[in-house]
Structures are given as structure tokens and as C-alpha cells.
Design brief:
- The protein has a single domain, classed as Jelly Rolls.
- It is built from seven helices and twelve strands.
- It is globular and about 45 Å long.
- The two termini are 18 Å apart.
- The strands form two sheets. Strands 1, 2, 3, 4, 5, 6, 9, 11 and 12 form a nine-stranded mixed beta sheet that branches. It has a three-stranded antiparallel beta sheet with strand order 8-7-10.
- The protein has 252 residues and is an alpha+beta fold.
- The longest helix is centred in the first third of the chain and has 18 residues.
- The structure holds 2-oxoglutaric acid.
- 2-oxoglutaric acid binds next to strand 6, strand 10 and strand 11.
Amino acid sequence: MLNDPLSSAHVVASDFLDAGECAETVRRVNGLRGRWTKHSHNGFFTLGAASYLDGAESPDSYLAAAAETNPLLSAAFSDLYSGLLGFLEHVLDEPVSYDERLALPGFHIFQISGNRSAGPPNTKGIESFDSTAAKRAHFDLQFLKAVPDWTLEATLSFTVPLAQPSGGAGLAVWPFRYEEAVRQNLSGQRFAAQNAYEQVSYELGRMVLHDGFILHAILRGIVHSGDLAHKGQRITLQGHGIRTNGRWTIYW
Ligand SMILES: O=C(O)CCC(=O)C(=O)O
């Protein structure tokens, strides 16, 4: 959180992959369908080990899931992972590496099957296309599970949209930071239920970065998309970073 070049900018976006690279990555993700992990909500899967999901029981369960999935991911996406390091070094202007014990960045996969409509205004009359976004509002505190003993200087969260449904996809961002939530003793979800979000619309291959301490949530649809049928895959590459001694370690 300290000295983070991203913390004052809240959310920044930068072109990473071109359309052909996104399509090829999606083809490989779909080719590994048998290795996706299915989650409780309809149509939500992951490929890889995510500390916020696989570390829910304990840091050891996360490390075991990472050891199991890293060989698969590095074999299938080696070019993507080496390009990612170079890209992040360029954006952050500091050395960046993976840690073989921690999970490589992985994929969020939503199979969206259609017919959604604008949600009702919330209690303050705030219109929302994705009326459930506030329930998913969160800060990225999963470094506590992935690297409980590390001394952090700064953190990073990034998302690369690879496929989006017909109605688009994006990130909901509320003007509310973790430090403020602690200071006010107010949960992020409570704030989100009563305040409008800003919509960051995704573009394929364009990485969205922030420090994880700004309140945010996955948006499955975006306002003004004009498409209420809203079908297709929403696939993103997702990862995080922690900075210690001026070096970034990337993980999921
Ligand atoms: O998939 C996205 O759009 C963002 C994901 C996210 O916010 C997270 O994993 O913390």
C-alpha cells in the first residue's frame, strides 16, 4: 500500500495483448476445460489456483493447489507468462518475477447464458445494470492467505479481459478505500449497497491495474451496452503482486 505508483491513480489501463493473442489464449483455456474448477454459482469456473478461493481453508491448501496447477499452466501458457513479466516490468519500472511456490496468474471463466435485465434501483435510487455487483464488492486482501509472513511495501491487482459476453464486461469501482473502511469501521459491501459505482468498461487485451485497496467488484454486464440478451464467455487472466525490497512477486 505504501509507495505504490498505482494507489493515487486508483485504476489504470494499458494495452497488453492484441486480438489474435486473446483469441489464442481463449482457445487454450477452452482446450483445458477438463481441468477447470467449478464453483458454486452457476457458470463460474477457475483455471489455476486462486488464493482467495483455494486458500480459504488455510495457506497450505493454497500452496497445494498451486503445486498441482502450476505445471499445467506453465506448459500451456509459457509465452503468455513470459510476456506478462516483461509487460509488468515496463508498467511498474521495477523487477518482476514469479515465485515457484505461489500460484501463477490464472483464469476466471463465466459461461453466461443470457437474458438479464437492468437491476432495480437500490435503496438510494441508484440504477445499476448489474444489480448484484454490490454483493461482490471487496478489497483484495488475499495476500494475507498467500504470503502471511511477508512484509509488504505495496500491492497490485490486475485483470486482462480475454473474452467478453455480447453485453460487454467490466469492473465496478467505488470511491472508497480499505484504509477508510477500517477508519469508519464500515464494511465494503455496506458502502457499496448505498453508493453508486463507477464503471470501468473492459476492452479485450487491455490490462486494468489497481492496488487492490479500492473497493471493486466484477461486472458481468455494462450499462449502455444495449444488449440485454447478454450471452457468451467472460474470461479474464487474473493476478496480483506484492512488492518487497523493491521487487514485485506476481501470484494469484
Ligand atoms: O474479473 C474481474 O473483472 C475482476 C476480478 C477481481 O476483482 C478480483 O479477482 O479481485
